[in-house]
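Researcher: Sequence recovery benchmark, item below. Answer with residues only.
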């Protein structure tokens, strides 16, 4: 088995992260770091920190030169960072030492690596946003079409009160809608890092702040106005959001797994997997991927939080931990979004199976409604006690709560109580409100 499922020839299509996979490769990282070096030189040339002619030559070369990522490994092993090897290789490829001497002027490795990471995280968030919008559109259509379709509500795995399938779908979608609304704030953490060796920008003197602002503008990133070498908050706020998205999608995956299981059959998946030995199996593979990938993302986010405890002005161990953790977290979150995007359009509720549950439940889902209905003639505590007694009898002896209640209270009209359509509360309104909110995006 490969070190990570996203790098596996066998498993990468199962845990499909889509276009996000291209963002977390050695070649993508090298390309991003060269873009940062080029933008830095251009900004320094404009401010007169380095000769403008050299700045132009460096900027142009970063767009033209292709470096072999494999050639950086030996020096990265010695230095603990890829930048010294990258700068040396780039200077050699430029073949213009009079200009190349100004590459990476005053910057430190973390400035380049972190800023290059932010360029790739920006692309990741754009892909996640598009995937969430597609998923929400499909969920909104489902919620709107089935706003009034009654099904059993369950708490702790037990019958509760009736809900509608549309309201269940809205319950899956609302957290995703919240995440999408929060995304603009999350994007504000896409920041440049430029503060030099110990975070003070001492090499650039009073030009440090203008240079950081110019680099931010050139790359389309935010200017933090400070050093964040040892403050991993900008990265952690992004990983927190990725984890929230993953968890929200995994909740849908958990529900779908239960709804599709044998003996329930309340949902039909558009695509299901088979067994190597049992021909009858229709395995809920996509929901399982949602749950597994989310568990992975959540676990890795905990590691990221630990890596946020960086020592002093920079901490090699904390930074290395990010390198080992962050790419997989990002790809697992992207896997959740891509899987949900493919899964949701094929979901089909099974109304007949949902209806059969009401017959099998012996009327117990209407117990709460019955207790409130009886308060027209009984004090609330007594009504609750009577209904609880009737429920115990039905569970023990069989039969239906409607018949037991009618026998106990022959003079009370119980028709408003029994029948799922009349006990949905605001379930349909929840479904339609969610659909409208998605449409308003």
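Model:
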């Amino acid at each position: 088995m490969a070190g990570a499922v996203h790098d596996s020839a066998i498993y990468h299509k199962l845990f499909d992260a889509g276009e996000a996979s291209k963002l977390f490769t050695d070649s993508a990282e090298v390309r991003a770091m060269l873009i940062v070096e080029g933008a830095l030189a251009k900004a320094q040339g404009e401010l007169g920190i380095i000769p403008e002619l050299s700045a132009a030559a460096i900027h142009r070369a970063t767009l033209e030169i292709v470096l072999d990522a494999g050639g950086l490994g030996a020096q990265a092993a010695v230095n603990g960072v890829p930048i010294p090897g990258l700068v040396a290789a780039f200077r050699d490829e430029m073949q213009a030492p009079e200009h190349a001497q100004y590459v990476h002027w005053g910057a430190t490795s973390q400035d380049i690596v972190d800023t290059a990471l932010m360029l790739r995280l920006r692309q990741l968030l754009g892909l996640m946003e598009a995937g969430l919008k597609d998923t929400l559109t499909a969920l909104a259509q489902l919620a709107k079409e089935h706003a009034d379709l009654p099904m059993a509500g369950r708490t702790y795995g037990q019958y509760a009160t009736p809900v509608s399938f549309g309201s269940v779908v809205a319950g899956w979608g609302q957290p995703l809608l919240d995440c999408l609304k929060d995304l603009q704030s999350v994007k504000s953490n896409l920041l440049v890092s430029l503060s030099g060796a110990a975070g003070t920008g001492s090499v650039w003197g009073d030009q440090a702040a203008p240079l950081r602002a110019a680099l931010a503008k050139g790359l389309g990133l935010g200017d933090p106005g400070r050093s964040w070498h040892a403050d991993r908050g900008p990265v952690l706020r992004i990983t927190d959001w990725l984890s929230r998205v993953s968890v929200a999608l995994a909740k849908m995956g958990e529900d779908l797994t239960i709804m599709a299981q044998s003996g329930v059959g309340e949902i039909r998946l558009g695509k299901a997997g088979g067994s190597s030995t049992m021909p009858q199996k229709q395995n809920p593979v996509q929901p399982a991927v949602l749950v597994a990938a989310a568990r992975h993302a959540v676990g890795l986010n905990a590691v990221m939080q630990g890596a946020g405890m960086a020592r002093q002005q920079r901490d090699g161990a904390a930074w290395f931990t990010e390198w080992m953790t962050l790419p997989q977290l990002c790809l697992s979150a992207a896997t959740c979004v891509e899987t949900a995007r493919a899964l949701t359009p094929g979901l089909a509720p099974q109304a007949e199976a949902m209806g059969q549950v009401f017959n099998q439940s012996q009327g117990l889902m209407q117990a709460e409604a019955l207790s409130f209905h009886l308060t027209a003639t009984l004090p609330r505590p007594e009504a609750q006690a009577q209904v609880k007694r009737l429920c115990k009898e039905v569970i023990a002896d069989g039969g239906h709560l409607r018949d037991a209640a009618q026998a106990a209270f022959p003079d009370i009209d119980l028709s408003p109580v029994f029948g799922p359509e009349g006990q949905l509360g605001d379930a349909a309104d929840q479904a339609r409100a969610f659909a409208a909110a998605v449409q308003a995006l």
